[in-house]
What does this fold into?
Amino acid sequence: MKIKEVLAQKSSNAVFAIEASKSIDVVIKEMHEKRVGALLVQSETGEPIGILTDQDIVRFYAEQLGDANQVSVAQIMTENFCVETLDSTTDKAESIMTEQRVRHLPIVDDCEVIGIISLGDLVKAKLQETAVE
It folds into this structure.
């Protein structure tokens, strides 16, 4: 199965983003309101420069890295994040997620992030594929 099929099955392909200068407490509220586990991090010019996930936030608290209203997204985000394309397979995406120990993968088309898939999205797609077979 291709990644484009997974994105087509999602109820929303909105890519939620946050500026790197925002504080962690603001981001936590935004992630909760949007019911997402990851946000694309953008520079002031709108360039994607990282990803912030619920795992990054848990690590922030576990390592007691500071006060959530004083620490910026840029200080705890994942800068070197993997991406995949629409024509990539779900097997490849699963492999990357497993090897890199991540649960969210931005999807790019023509150098633009057009969606983010989660490990849950892949599991759901695989279950649906199996049910059809």
Observations:
- The helical segments are 3-9, 24-34, 54-62, 73-76, 90-100, 119-132.
